[in-house]
């Protein structure tokens, strides 16, 4: 993936079989060192969920690709994502 802008899901795993999904819009841009991802929650409830459930998350794209990530709030109310690993 060199660039992407569109829907994605952040999934917090409560246990091995249960996850809580937060729908987000993802903006993925390629950088000199890899990539940068900013996500914005689709709804206030999704935004609250991202803040409440904490790290780590599974970031899932519509094509089925996914990455274990951590998120951190930025100054604009969005979330900056850092990759931990791919799946």
Structural description of this entry:
- By secondary structure, this protein is mainly beta.
- It is built from 1 helix and 6 strands, in the order βββαβββ.
- The mean pLDDT is 83.
- The longest helix has 10 residues, at 44-53.
Specify the structural class: mainly beta
Give me the CATH fold name.
Answer: Thrombin, subunit H
* Proportion of strand residues: over 45%
CA-based gyration radius: 12 Å
Looking at this protein, list some descriptive labels.
87 residues; mainly beta; Thrombin, subunit H; 6-stranded antiparallel beta barrel; 11% helix; 60% strand; globular
Layout of helices and strands:
Layout (H helix, E strand, L loop, with lengths): L2 E11 L5 E13 L2 E8 L2 H10 L3 E4 L5 E8 L5 E8 L1
Antiparallel strand pairs: 1-2, 1-4, 2-3, 3-6, 4-5, 5-6
Sum this structure up briefly:
The chain is mainly β and 87 residues long.
